[in-house]
Amino acid sequence: MTTVSERQDTALAIEEGFPVRVSPAAAPLSLARAGDSLRALVARRLEQDGALLFSGFTDPGVAGFQAFAASFGHPLLSYEFGSTPRSRVAGEVYTSTEYPAHRSIPLHNEQAYTTEWPMRIWFYCAQAAAVGGETPIADSRRIYQRIDPALRRRFAERGLRYVRNYGNGLDVDWPQVFNTDDPRQVEAFCRSKGIDLHWKDDGGLRTSQRCQAVARHPRTGDWVWFNQAHLFHVSALEPDMQEVLLETVGEDNLPRNVYYGDGTPLESSALEDIRGVLDECRICFPWRTGDVLMLDNMLCAHAREPFQGPRKVVVAMAEGHGCRLGDLPGEDTRNP
């Protein structure tokens, strides 16, 4: 463990690892009071390490967490075109994915299923679960390197197409996803993002968007595995649920599915290989109430473990970034 100190009362203790653990060298110390030192540390280390855990500081509360996340120089982002149910807690702070406590959420990079995403994401543990509830993380550079090169090249060159059918009791309703109940605003949003949409006869909505499978970090130049194919594909469902949905609504009306960019089917075997790599790369650490985890969203994926008892983890995001359809990384034939 090393100590970073410009002033004794705001000195920081640094424990190397993944994530890098940052604590007060001499408690008590708030995130706000240590802000200058923490921002300097983030500038040096976040794009090197991908994940920083601020632990042992006085509990900031939701308002203090929001102020801390906003102090890094970028306005906090609203949660647009989301794929999971969330609720606004305060300002641009949201609940983490509202998903049954007994289920795990696999590793993923936030909004990697579209062509625009936040570069930075913060998680604040307002209440740690009595049992479980960890937020595992994984280095997206390591995942990229461990994916079979032939499979990686195929995904990169062909890209991915995500197809979503909203609502009908099976998935998030489109007014919640698009933050509006005005179809014209939905259509304008989709046009601006290169998303194809189709209004169905029953009032439902289907969208389709071609996206990247890999991406290159705009500042570090690192290639990362950056998609959510393993989450969107029908094979992510339990076998019984797959069977029921395919029999009752058919493949075209599944809540979500993913194909190669040209619309041809993805191989379930390839996705199983990808899930295996993700499992090999995941790192799990325990939450403590008051902890704040800061990730570079391109360099680090995150997940959620099942839990028992009350748990409250909230999220903030900043620094939107993305790629145009003509600049998808998979179109770069020099990509290894």
TrEMBL record:
Q: What is the originating organism of this protein? A: Marinobacter lutaoensis
Question: Entry's PANTHER family?
Answer: GAMMA-BUTYROBETAINE HYDROXYLASE-RELATED (PTHR10696), TAUD_TFDA-LIKE DOMAIN-CONTAINING PROTEIN (PTHR10696:SF56)
Cofactor(s) needed by this chain: Fe(2+)
Q: Name one GO biological process term.
A: antibiotic biosynthetic process
What highest taxon heads this organism's lineage?
Answer: Bacteria
Q: Which InterPro entries match?
A: AlphaKG_dependent_hydroxylases, TauD-like_sf, TauD/TfdA-like
Residues forming the TauD/TfdA-like domain are 30-316
What protein does this entry describe?
TauD/TfdA-like domain-containing protein
In Pfam terms, one family for this protein is: TauD
GO MF, one annotated term: 2-oxoglutarate-dependent dioxygenase activity
Keywords on this record?
Antibiotic biosynthesis, Oxidoreductase
